[in-house]
Amino acid sequence: ALLPYVPRVPPAALPGKVTATTFALEMPRCVFDCHANASDTVWLVVACANASSAFKNPPSRADVPPYERLPTACAYMTLGMAAAAFACSAPGPALLRVGGDTACRGQGGQDPCNGPLPSPGPYRVKFLVMGCHGPKAETRWSDPILLRRGTGGTAVPTP
User: pTM value?
Assistant: First the structure.
């Protein structure tokens, strides 16, 4: 199912450090409640803006594109979380930090990782609900997100 939700960078100033390799997204609460069950995982897909139209949803968890593929494939998936984390009643932060795990570059493994973004972008993101038999629902792609290097790395949607 294609959901009408569009991921977005919060319009207000963000608490905490934002760098030239990370950005924050609003947490999509209540978006997946009718489309996911307790065993499903919600993934964040990060793609270079010019590669988002070519991205194909993986048919299974084993086919999730890892962080290491970003430089060549211009897309990867990260922040795989239980669908319950996105429920209306779920406790937790109102923001998701994208690119915040600096240990990804040295991990050498193929596991999905929320690693630093290698360029200012622009990037597009979407959320994908994966069940045990593959994709179940997805949001629309975000507007392009560009990291501003000269201003502390604040991420903003491109005009």
Answer: 0.85
